[in-house]
Amino acid sequence: MPAPAPSAQLPAAPSTEHAPPPEAPGGLTATVAQRLLEQLVRSAAPRGERLKEQALADALGVSRSPIRKALQYLETLGAVRSEPNRGFQLAMESAELRTLSIDDGDSDEAVYMRIVEDRLANAIGEEVSEAELMDRHSWSRLQVQRALNRLAREGLAERKPGRGWLFRPVLQTVEAHRASYRFRMIIEPAALLEPSFKVDKAAFDRVRRTQHQLLDGGIERWTAAERFAAGAEFHEALVACAHNPFILDALRSVNQQRRILEYHSHTHAVQDHTRLTRQCQEHLALLDLLEAGERMEAAHQLRQHLDVVRVIKTHEEPPTLTTPATAATPALPAGPRIEVHL
């Protein structure tokens, strides 16, 4: 009787003990990879969950091509893995993903954020030329132009009739910050009352999970930028249910300007655990009201929610006739800081 054939063995995985770290991508891929990594951390999806490229593209507002390239890079970091004809799936838990970072060097996002940092720190004036920025940071003209054009699209800068660029004083002052909250108090409650409003169950489940993660220790552990992103995602998810692109675009524009300011000042933000906890609880209550069909009450509470935060953030004297929620809100010390709103 012939001896049984030896069982086939899978080849051993190549050792990565001494493998050099993968080279960081540049340009749009680096930007999308970083945003995608932040999105995966916030989602707290379990290891092994399938990642749908189109859903990720919709969430980040880009096409599928940069999403695919970003996923391919994240695969080199071990964050995701791919299978033939089955796409990508998560290869790490949320806590492991937090340990990863993407060194994007002089990517478009890095150039853009450095210009914003310089402006908010008054390292450059209200008017600036492309040549000045090129000399200051040894960037190419194309890098500078892409960043300035993005600032122009977001309403933060505009090209002068002659030469040079002019920065707009948006959300750089307490007055501008206060005005942004007044604007949100107009559009966000109105969105909840739109005839086309329809609850997006999947989106509500996602943002509810994020709010619970914040209450379950995320307020202490997450960075200010992560807390800000979670808050922006929550409010945009509510407004998106109105299916009115003009309202959603307006809110996204305001949030983009707030995000820029947050990136500049997150290391100096005041963290009031009691207030942030209350805001998360209010977010969850709004979800419950909307799912119960109580849109009028939800709109009222959302406006009150934003008004209370406006008073706290801008150190504005509350009106004489205050609501119970406003009266119970502790005042923060006066100062120039603009904090992170969930």
Description:
With 342 residues, this protein is mainly alpha-helical. It has three domains: 27-97, Orthogonal Bundle (Arc Repressor Mutant, subunit A), CATH 1.10.10.10; 108-167, Orthogonal Bundle (Arc Repressor Mutant, subunit A), CATH 1.10.10.10; 174-327, GntR ligand-binding domain-like (Four Helix Bundle (Hemerythrin (Met), subunit A), Up-down Bundle), CATH 1.20.120.530. Helix content is 58%, strand content 5%. The chain contains 14 helices and six strands. It has a three-stranded antiparallel sheet. It has a three-stranded antiparallel sheet with strand order 4-6-5. A hairpin with a 3-residue loop joins strand 2 and strand 3 (87-90). Helix 8 packs antiparallel against helix 11, helix 8 runs antiparallel to helix 13 and helix 9 (201-221) runs antiparallel to helix 10. It is globular. The chain starts with 26 loop residues before the first helix and ends in a 15-residue tail after the last helix. The model is unreliable at 6-21 and 320-340 (pLDDT under 50).
